[in-house]
Amino acid sequence: MISEAGERDKYGVECMSGAPGRSRLAAFDIIAAPKGPMRVTHEEAYPGIRFLPSSMNWWARLKGVPAECIHLEDDQAFMASLLPDTLYLRGKAAKRREPARPEVSLCRNCFLNVFRREFEGFTGRGIAFEPDGSSFSQYFFVSVPDFAAAGLLPEVQAAIERRLAGESEPCEQCSFPATWLWISREEVPDLGDAHAILHAAGKKLCAIHAARAMCEAFETIPEANLYYVNLPYGESGAYVWF
What we know:
Elements: H1 24-32, H2 42-45, H3 58-63, E1 67-68, E2 78-82, E3 86-89, E4 92-95, E5 104-107, H4 108-120, E6 125-129, E7 138-143, H5 147-150, H6 154-164, E8 169-170, E9 177-178, E10 180-183, H7 194-199, E11 203-205, H8 207-219, E12 224-229, E13 236-241
Parallel strand pairs: 1-5, 2-12, 6-10, 6-13, 7-12
Antiparallel strand pairs: 2-5, 3-4, 7-13, 8-9, 10-11
Helix pairs in contact: 4-8
């Protein structure tokens, strides 16, 4: 379903400027220099998540490693690397929100807390495919305009777009509009099977109940090391696994 070019690039090391003891002229030069992109702090991006101090010190920043939640200090069977606002287009990182929130490594509970909160607030339409808990390493959202650049096969793109274009119906669990279609592994075991995608019944759910279904699926996975998960963006798209 996804081309072989979908490998992640390595991150560069971010250098810090403004060492103590600089002259007034140097300080003026810094003030007068063009401003860089705005940055979001970990506290702003992930309220309520506590991070290991050792993963946020100068040495960790120098190595370019993401901050880790405090629960990863102990051995954890489930870990997810969350890059909320980044999509990989044929191996190259593309920001889908500015300013982009920093990458973090989270245990299952911390990850699901962030994932659920963000997912429930998404107002667009989407399809979410249940991942193969025994083999997947990535689970990411791709908006419709990015389908081709993300490496989805043409027939898969067409099948997903047809499902997204269907008429809106009530959620199967409540009276709110169903903005998501949750498709189980039993119905679509292979994301390259466009015919199965077109004919899967799935569950038509609102954002709240779709988030619940997805979190329950993650909770049934005994162990996982996900090195790429992002959060929904745009007007419509699909969560796919790889």
